[in-house]
Design goal:
The complex is a heterotrimer of chains A (117), B (203) and C (155). Chain A is an alpha+beta fold and 117 residues long. Chain A has three helices and five strands. Helices cover 30% and strands 28% of the residues of chain B. Chain B has a single domain, classed as P-loop containing nucleotide triphosphate hydrolases (Rossmann fold, 3-Layer(aba) Sandwich). The two termini of chain B are 14 Å apart. The longest helix of chain B is centred in the middle third of the chain and has 17 residues, at 110-126. The mean pLDDT of chain B is 90. The relative contact order of chain B is 0.19. Chain C is of the alpha+beta class and 155 residues long. Chain C has one domain (3-131): Dynein light chain 2a, cytoplasmic (Beta-Lactamase). Chain C is 43% helix and 23% strand. Chain C contains four helices and six strands; from the N terminus they run E-H-E-E-H-E-E-E-H-H. In chain C, strand 4 (76-79) and strand 5 (84-92) form a beta hairpin. Chain C starts with a strand and ends with a helix. The relative contact order of chain C is 0.16. The chains are: A alpha+beta (117), B alpha/beta (203), C alpha+beta (155). Chains B and C meet through strand 1, strand 2, strand 4, strand 5 and helix 2 of B and helix 2 and helix 4 of C.
Chain lengths: 117, 203, 155
């Protein structure tokens, strides 16, 4: 299992503009596996991304939008992406502005689907 | 080390009941718990084995009321008495402001009392504390047992009381001497605070 | 929710930690289980029991770490159905401190751990060296003590 998670991170990290990717325990917000550039705090990204996904999921539920599958947050300095891998994992990626979001999303959704029970 | 909150005018002190296995340390706390009104005590926590022997400690928080304008709280702990639980005894003893040594008055327990007292001295010393400055009292428990089975308070005093500490004969099961012992150690600990000390002196 | 501090320097870091981590209960204590600051406890006596147990867990884990040749185990985390607890120690100029954090489903162990690191760093910066030791009680405290204990046992 851990090999499989590592290979998925490797594929995501090959997308241009990626600064790091990780598997995160959705409920706990702690990193399960990570492949990050130096200077990126895995602990902080995991905790905050899991919190963000939970809040967005709550909002989606409240407006009747159904289950959230993918979250994309663009900021001035970069982009945070998260794909939900039920029942309890998230694939999280951190990228700079050059990233090809479409390609990143495909790799992340593929990784999430691969670990589905 | 006792904690003093000058803003809220509160004092909190830690008292540890020490002594050999089955000398009546937990019984002391249980009696105190049974006698104190609900608004002056917290829940008594007992970390015990299935056979009700203390495994880690018993804990009872008490609100003593206002003393010299300070709301005064005492945290009473017991240690497990059995010889092989020394590691946990050391942990509970950490930061104690005062010790009640509960001796078992039975003649056949004299060696256990001496061994436990020596163990207490060793554990205090290991924490870098001068045992002579740690407030302490002795309780000679089980004085209700038949005379032929026990040592008198005078005999126990000669055998155990090298520091000329205050002693209290007791029958903790029925509450005799429990209150007096607690009062004795409370006075010793608070006396140190009135003298500008906050517990035992570090060596 | 109430916050009380025995030593005022701990108040600002504690309030910030509670706000950021969304913790329900937080206790900052000495390794002997004496409370320096707390947030969220309604009854002082419940707080004392929680502190005594938290300090005991840390003491036992520390002793076990020593036996295994570890300096310490860092933070401890226990997950329950509705609550989780995070226990960690922190070296400060005031001496070693222990922080017990109780949190619910509105936050996560990841967030608590993340903000705990910042909290520990703030405690280290804010803590004064040593402790104030001066006569606290009046010399004639014994009359008060006698009255208090008598009311405690016969009240």
């Amino acid at each position: 299992m851990s090999d499989e998670l590592g290979r998925a991170l490797d594929r995501i990290s090959r997308v241009r503009g990626m600064r790091g990717s990780m598997w995160v325990s959705a409920e706990d917000g702690i990193p399960v596996a990570q492949l990050l550039m130096e200077g990126v705090s895995g602990k902080a990204v995991a905790a905050l991304a899991a919190s963000l996904v939970r809040k967005i999921s709550g909002t989606a539920g409240a407006v009747g939008a159904g289950r959230v599958r993918f979250v994309q947050m663009e900021a001035a300095g970069g982009t945070l992406l998260a794909a939900l891998a039920p029942p309890d994992l998230l694939v999280v990626a951190l990228a700079d502005s050059r990233v090809n979001i479409g390609l990143a999303r495909i790799e992340m959704m593929r990784a999430a689907a691969a670990v589905a029970p | 080390m006792s904690l003093v909150n000058f803003t809220a005018r509160e004092i909190t002190c830690k008292i540890v009941y020490y002594g050999p296995g089955r000398s009546g340390k937990t019984t002391n706390l249980q009696y105190v718990y049974s006698q104190v009104p609900a608004d002056r005590k917290g829940r008594m926590v007992s970390l015990a084995t299935q056979t009700d022997r203390t495994l880690f400690f018993d804990f009872l928080p008490l609100d003593l009321g206002t003393i010299s304008g300070f709301a005064t709280k005492f945290q009473l702990y017991t240690v497990p008495g059995q010889v092989y639980y020394n590691a946990t005894r050391k942990l509970v003893l950490q930061g104690a402001d005062g010790v009640v040594f509960v001796a078992d008055s039975q003649l056949r327990q004299l060696d256990e009392n001496i061994e436990s007292l020596q163990n207490l001295q060793a554990n205090i010393l290991e924490q870098g504390v001068d045992a002579r400055t740690l407030p302490m009292v002795l309780q000679f428990n089980k004085q209700d047992l038949p005379e032929e089975l026990i040592l008198s308070p005078q005999e126990l005093d000669e055998a155990l009381n090298f520091r000329n500490l205050q002693t209290f004969p007791a029958d903790a099961l029925h509450g005799v001497g429990v209150f007096e012992t607690l009062k004795g150690i409370a006075a010793e600990v608070l006396r140190r605070l009135s003298q500008g000390g906050g517990g035992a002196r570090r060596i | 929710m109430s916050t009380t501090v025995v030593e005022p320097w701990a108040e600002h870091p504690l309030l910030r930690y509670v706000a950021e981590s969304s913790a329900r209960l937080v206790v900052v204590m000495t390794p002997a289980g004496q409370v320096l600051a707390q947030h969220g406890f309604a009854r002082a006596v419940d707080l004392m029991a929680a502190s005594a147990l938290g300090a005991a867990i840390m003491a036992a884990a520390g002793a076990l770490a020593q036996q295994l040749g570890e300096r310490s185990f860092g933070a401890l985390f226990h997950a329950g159905e509705r609550h989780g607890i995070h226990l960690a120690s922190c070296a400060t100029p005031r001496g070693p401190l222990i922080v017990l954090t109780v949190f619910g489903k509105e936050t996560s162990i990841g967030l608590v751990g993340l903000f705990y690191d910042e909290f520990a760093a703030e405690l280290r910066r804010a803590a004064p060296a040593g402790q104030l030791r001066e006569p606290v009680l009046a010399a004639d405290f014994e009359a008060d003590l006698n009255r208090s204990l008598t009311s405690l046992f016969h009240g």
